[in-house]
Amino acid sequence: MLSLAVAAAIACGAASAAQKTLQLPEDSAVSGNLNGTSPTRVCRTGARWIRLGFESLALQGNDSLELTSSQNERQVLKGDRWKDRSFYTRALRGSCVSITTHFSNPGSGYALSGYQAGMQSLADTTSIAAGAGDLCAGTGSGCKASSDVVIAINPNVALAFGDNAYENGSLNDYNTRYDPNWGRFKAITQPVPGNHEYNTANATGYFDYFNGVGNQSGPAGNRGEGWYSYDLGDWHFIALNSRNGGTISTAQLDWLDADLRANTKPCTAAYWHHPFISRGNYTGYIALKAFWDRLYASRVDLVFTGHDHNYQRWTPMDGNKVAQADGVRQVIVGTGGNTTYPVNGTHALLEVKQSSTRGVIALTLGATGYIAEFEPVAGGTWTDSFEGTCHRSQGVVGDYFLSASATISITRGGASGGKIITLRSYGEFNAPVAMSVTGLPTGVTATWTGNPSTPPADGNSGPRVSLRASSSATPGSYPVTVNGTNGPFTRSVTFTLTVR
């Protein structure tokens, strides 16, 4: 499905800079070049919808830019989160899009790189993605079988969910095991690394294979990072790096914050290697809550992982593993070729599980929803299918979450000196949040600075809580919860308080 031109764009720079978001068009879309100009109206004769590409967009102060289509669909861009970024908007129905500026600052401005337009209705315009993890081991027969399925699906984009080339993810492993199989569609593959890639120092073999030997950037992301994003039609895809399932770097989380806040698409999916929750050989990785809290606050729709060599479909949930109608759905697809692991455990949120059949997940992606199907390898009969409507397709919901360092210690008769609670805003949330503390042991009191706290839209605020322990407080370690409340949303973060 993917044209050679688009494949070349992936190969040359899908992940070259965090500010550049590659836009992959649907097969039926047509493109036009606007050469960095600043028109006030963009039209395509006969178009049923138009998507505008911004080469740059700078909005200072309260300035905004309003897009209105000839069918009266509207998108307003405001805030500074697109500074130094190039990106495409979501599709707006109609043959023309008018651009109205509400500028009062001389530093505000925009330039358009181009547009994409559809000659059929947006409801009938779809893209295809297909993916799996835990791919090419031993003789490679398993990953040959799953790669045959991908070729039969003929996707716009192929997704590799990590542990792509066993045992060590070396360049030799990739060239001898991966390349003859999943390498047949390397030009359209958007990968992430798994823990086996890091059996080779710094995942050098992985980056050398996908980016080119010694190249700093390419389809696998920047060397040493391995995270990036891109758009496919009206879907935003976020590729993240869970490395070995341990602590997630601040650099990756800061990048993820910025990427989610700049996302203009109605539908979003993310993928990495290690599952947040699982009931196979593994139970999940708590460190990935740092991803999940951000994805839920931004109303991401889908997450795909591997690592457990089986298939598990989970109920949409929040970062506390509580079912939510607007939660993020995880699907583990570790069925790409290696030996399968049994799924012995149960969980109230585990909807579907199987470990008998290798295969891949196939996604049909529209502008407001998706259809997903597990496609078995030749000879397999087990299948699964599910579908959903994108959370942001009816508008962006402003939300927030709280984070804090894991521990704090105080000495009896003294004070903590203050603990910062970071309040992170998404979807332009900009309202006061009332803070409170529960779980304090007898003899410990809390004093707040900056409470209630109002974060900037798509930004962070830092209310501070100081804890004081009286001389009569009982030494020990206690779980303490900070709660933030605004309207329908109550968010919390728990840390360990040690009284000495």
Distance between the termini: 64 Å
> Biggest sheet, in brief?
8 strands, mixed
Low-confidence stretches: 2-18
Describe the global form. globular
Alpha-beta classification: mainly beta
Strands of the widest sheet, in order across it, are: 1-14-15-16-17-19-18-20
Overall pLDDT score: 94
- Beta-strand percentage range: 35-45%
Query: How many helices in DSSP terms?
Result: 6
**Strand count:** 33
Q: Give the C-alpha Rg.
A: 24 Å
| Helical content band | 10-25%
Task: Describe what is shown at a glance.
This protein has 500 residues and is mainly beta.
Protein traits:
eight-stranded mixed beta sheet, six-stranded mixed beta sheet
